[in-house]
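dumping this here before i forget
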Amino acid sequence: METLTKEKLKRAEKTLRQYLPKSQQVYGCVFLMGRVQADPMEVMVDRWPDFSVMIIKPKVQEVADLFKDGFVFTKDEASLRNILEKTDFLDKKQYFCTSVATCHEEVLKAVAAAKGVPKKRLAVCRLMTLPDLSNLTNDRLSVQTSSLTESHIDLVNSTWKFGAEGFSKRMVRDMIVNFPSSCVLDADGHPVSWILTYSSCAMGMLYTLPEHRKKGYAKAVVSALAKKLHSGGYPVFCFIEENNQLSYRLFRSLGFNEDSSYRFAWYDFHERPLTPL
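structure:
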């Protein structure tokens, strides 16, 4: 496979735009890489410029980097199978997490099984995109929003469902420092509700402290971040786990749409390291 340079990433971005929403994750990641200080990522294609497969994975510089997601996109399943079988993408004896469209996950599972690579399906998510801003409600709420800072890292990490083991603190820090976020602060300046941006440009980690729920804060932070992303020309989208009806209804109420025929699955490969950060 060929690793793309910064110059080629611009051209790849234009190509990926033609395949939305199927290319949403890799498109969002390439989009961010060209505009802000992002996590060190390696973007690889099966051939250039007419690629059929793109794989994006973080460069592992320390243990924490293992817990940043990789992304797989393909226009042709046979090409994806060929890459998985003939490269060491799955062979390296090192933990990693990656996502793939559910329509291609059987290929990923089959090749992993043939190579004897242990795997675990973590989640299946709906892809939701925002075609316009007309339903966003932030302007009608008497809620002031702000942005998260480095002083909020521990709080965000401790409340995230995957943050309990301490592995994700570095990832949360990089998200807060490098990418847009939105939060509601209490009278003492402490966040009570927030949402961040992942390295794929997806909105996520939405959370409101239990004692501050049912006040419209979630709508406020989602609306504020969506407007912030849109004003910067960013794609506005998110992933909602299939069984999370509360978040699904919230984003639907704000104008986010779902392509029910296209979803994404996340997989762990190899064993997770036992020592947290």
